[in-house]
Hints:
By secondary structure, the protein is α+β, with helices and mostly antiparallel strands. The chain folds into four domains: 1-250, no CATH class; 252-454, Methane Monooxygenase Hydroxylase, Chain G, domain 1, CATH 1.20.58; 573-633, SH3 type barrels; 640-723, Alpha-Beta Plaits. The protein is 68% helix and 8% strand. It is built from 20 helices and ten strands. A hairpin with a 2-residue loop joins strand 1 and strand 2 (479-482). The longest helix has 56 residues, at 193-248. It is elongated. The relative contact order is 0.04.
Amino acid sequence: MVAAFFRSSAGVLIAAFLITSPVARAQGVKALIDSITGQAKQADRPADPSLKEQLEWVRGESEASRSLTEESAEKTTRAALAAAGLPESRIEDFRAAAREIQRNFQGAADLLDGLKKLEEENAGPAPQTPVPKTEAAAAGLRDSLRRSQLAAKSARGEADLLARLVAQQQLLAANAEKEIRQLGEEEASAQTGEAKARAGVQLQLARLQKRAADATVFFAKWRIYQQEILLKKADAQAASIESALREGGFQNQINAGRAASQLAALAKESADLEKSLAAAVKSQAAAIEDKKKLAASGQTGPQAVARQSAADALVDATQRLVAALQGTQSLLDLEKAHWLSVQSLAGELDPATVRSATAQSEDAIRTLSDWRPLLDRRLLEARENLEAARKKLRETSGDPVQKDLLERTVETDQLRVGAGGAVISRIEQFIALQNDFLSELDAARRNENATRKLARTWDDIAAFAAGIWKFELFSAGGSSINVGKVILAIAGLLLALKLSGWISRRASRAAERNLRIAPVQRILLEKILFIPVAATLILTTLNWLNIPLTVFAFFGGALAIGVGFGAQNLVNNFISGLILLLERQIKVGDIIEVGPSTGKITHLGSRCSRLRKFDGVEVLIPNSAFLEKEVINWTLDDSHHRYDFTVGVAYGSPVEKALAVLDAALRGQTGVLKDPEPGVYFEAFGDSALIFRLYYWIEVGGDTDSRAVGSEIRCRIERDLRAAGIELPFPQRDLRIRSSSPIPVRIEKSDP
């Protein structure tokens, strides 16, 4: 029975089945029909149908599709479902597919009814736009140009969305075709009557769904062709208007009259948009109130759930509409800022104003380019929501509350789709406007004379430097920290440290002169004064630059760890330096010996001290080494130090005379102290000489060089002993040769 019912409707979708190639671009209706019907001919249709015949055929198919939703057809379907053992709820699938077929053919009939007139209107050449003579006329043409560009963009976007719909429905039709083949095989191989009936019912449903998808493709392709005609018309109008504006000299943006006209138009649009936004907010409040009433009613059941779902959809739609209108308002604000900038440039291209306008335009382009993907997704979502709301509205019957909510949702989604499409089109136009504006500025700057270009280049360099100087790095404590503040802070810190050192040195030297303090105390006072003076100057510098101390809170943890670990040696040496200055065990000018180094202290620093060795090499010694290692201070309390060395004379020399000569040599040497007295002592009998030890004292740390004194003493001793006839011995050894046999000895006389 169901098979007989669907076979009676086999001619309904003949056109949809025959569409296999894309719609030819910019062809007439006749050519388009040829592309649709060129693969097969039908006995009941003309071989080459005219638009009138095509329209009559589509209307006939639309009327025939109504039989799919008649009550008798539904009764037949219910009986078939019962015979096949399938749930009666599956009839909704049949009903939805039949309604989709009827809707698409009815839409195609309405479209074809006005398509011939639209094609005839655009068959001839595009009308020529008169050249404007005044700014008012040019402003009117720009409004027309904007409407044409919006229409072109809308048509292009509609065609793209329809192309996506065609691809989606073709995929559904292909899947349905696979299902038809599988169900046909199942029906042919069924073993029982019930199984055969079940497969037959599912097969007819798959065929009906495929026909619905093909009908959607059929209608969508005709709509694409309609949008192509509208796009061609809008592009032709836009090109004609642009040509007229260019010929009249009104194409430049940097024009005071044009800027004033655009600002007036934007003011009017803003006023209209505020009204629309107020109405949308009012609709949103009403939707929220309706939702609350439904929730407070306490009703349950499928009808209450459906109403609540419709109320949720309406609230969501109104919220999104309000957001879309607010986005439009933001775009109008950007346009207003642009034309105000243009108005300021109309008199003279001031370099500072040009830089500001250029930066504003570039920022607007970046902002709008970032907006565009999001707006595209939201527009597609709005279209999907609109189609879903329309579908629910068609399927709703009997509940006036749900129907009212869905109708309001459809109306809101339509407004949202319109607003979203307008915003996207306007964004593209505004980006193009900004690019034209930047090109116009660039052309104007290229035409400047050499003096103007040089001045502008200097201004650009100064502006670039100022931009870097004012570049914000971060903010802390409500204060902005930029590059300039950081540079000034570093310079201020260096100056504060330098000034602190100068102040502390001057103060300590004044104290040394007036209070007659020791040099080591002066150094200690200098270091004590340096820290508070430096801290005061640094804090003053930071306060002058309006840099709060909270800026350094971020570095507090790292600084504490650094002091605890990485800076512990620094702190150790600093404290050791203070201890050395306070205890005065080591002073500047002292001769000390620490480790392998011996020399004079020339400077006691806060971290390390300088030791000048006797060979002229300066060694930096950490202050902690003076406290941790053994240190010999040759001039700690007394600068008198004793030196000694030994002298040997030959055996047989008069000892008393030798003692007298040595003692006279010591006492007569310059640099040897009289008190304590020098001494000479007969120390030992050596292997080859009589050993005398000489002791003498000299003052270390002054101009006396202990090495020179010792050398002169040795020279005097050698001279005095030689004069006294006392011999300085050299080592003597007795050689004994032991042999088991006599050693032959022979004396030979050499030839003369």
